[in-house]
Each structure stands twice: as structure tokens, then as C-alpha cells.
Write a structure and sequence with these properties.
The protein has 84 residues and is mainly alpha-helical. It has 2 helices and no strands.
Length: 84
Amino acid sequence: MPVYSETELFNRVIVSNWAQLQRELEPHLDGDWLFRGVTSARYLLMPSIGRRRENYAYSADAETKMFERFQRESLPFLQARPQN
């Protein structure tokens, strides 16, 4: 998995409860940030479908088919049907 160099890392903040986490995140909740936990701050943010694994090759066609299937099969679980 690709990693960032030491100079590219963001500041790491360790919190011990939800209230601390909320205080740390609130200043950044302006619509331009997305937070995701990973085992190392050096890992690039990449969806699991794009990660390299043994006996697996990424396919844009397979990703498109999975997304279309998700769109079809999720409809019964929605309160309102999306317009797009």
C-alpha cells in the first residue's frame, strides 16, 4: 500500500472519549473535510475496491457493475426515491 513521507503527514491527535473527538473535529466540519480511521496515518486514503490484494485485480467495469447493483437493490430500503 502506498505511504506518505514523514513531511506529508498530518498532525496526529489522540483522544480518549467521544467528547474529545467532537471537540477536535468541530472546527473542521465545514464540508471540505472527510475523516476516516486507518491503521497508519501514512496510508493513502483509498476505497477498498481500489486496494491491491492477492488474487485480485481492480476492474473499473466490475466497480461500475457493483455500484449499479447497489443502486438497484437499495431502493426498497429508502424512504424516498432519489431523483438522480
